[in-house]
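REQUEST FORM: STRUCTURE PREDICTION
Request ID: SP-0412
Submitted by: Lab K.M.
Chain count: 1
Length (residues): 375
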Amino acid sequence: MSSAPPAHLVLAPISERAAPPAALPVPLFDGLTWRPLTVEDAPALFRLVSAVEEHDRHPYRTSLEETEEIFEGGWRDLSRDTLAGIDADGEPRAYASIDTRPGDTTVVRAFVQGAVHPQWRGRGIGRQVIAWSTGRARQLLAASGKEVPGRIAAYVQDDDEPGRRLLEAAGYTANRFYSNLRRDLQLPVPEVTLGEGLRLVPWSPELDEATRLAHNDAFRDHWGSEPATPESWVHGRSMFAPEWSMLVVDDSPAAAGPDGVAPRADTETGASAPHAHAGDGPVVAGYLMSGRYEHDWPVQGYSSGYTETLGVRRAYRGRKIAVALLSASMAAYKADGVEYAELDVDTANPSGAHGLYASLGYEKKDGSRMYSIEL
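STATUS: Completed
RESULT:
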């Protein structure tokens, strides 16, 4: 499903559509001093985020390593894209962070996140923080110079009613819904035999660039997905579990692919796809990247292996590659004594993923949604 506008729709320049404010509305509140976040704030920000997640009874917890990822990314300007309200003791009691990704080509996006400490709520701070965040997001989109549709987006849990009300009051609309699915690993794990020329291998650093190219091809027909650059592809891997991550490779791909589909240029490297790959190694036909979130297990009440991303190149679909990858990952989770396999899926996923997961025994546990302002 394409995110691009219909051919007949002529968009105004992004600098106009984004309507960036000339100056940002810095929150005003007695007892808090506002400044950008710095790398040294990571432990204190972790304490704030932990207090929020515990109070709001989120079904997960953010680790210190994940918190530190907010400060990473060569494309980020922390001095302009973050804000924190610091109390008299030097502790952050509210924060905001806005992130963009350099690879956006069909929709240029700005993601906002933030929180207010439970003891400081009910005083209007949240409204001021989201107003600042939205204004900064508009500035970033306007400055991108990308003449494509724009989006300001934020994610909340389905049961986070205060968070939903805050976003709705700020002009955001719930536009996408996601289900968190889990699968009991006490159920038998299916065995899958791959077709001729395909083999299942563990993820390895040597194949990571080929995996990025496979990801860009696999997700180019998914709503909301944009190409991953080499830098953004490796960002956010603090919880990456290479021992639980799998690839299906094709050592001898035909020139036009197994279904006769002609190659296509990769948007970042110019290499041909769907059979583009790094170096002279095999083509990655499909991949599954896993995460290990052990700090979530006490909150969940069970251990789990989490499928971060699963994709199959368009030319290789219909060959049981996704089932083979899921089965191999479940077997790896189970071998390490883990009780459940988990993943998130877009409820409007065009690939029929819901049916696939249901057939393998996955069931919905909870859900989240994306709120956005479409420009």
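NOTES: The mean pLDDT is 89.
Reviewed by: T.R.
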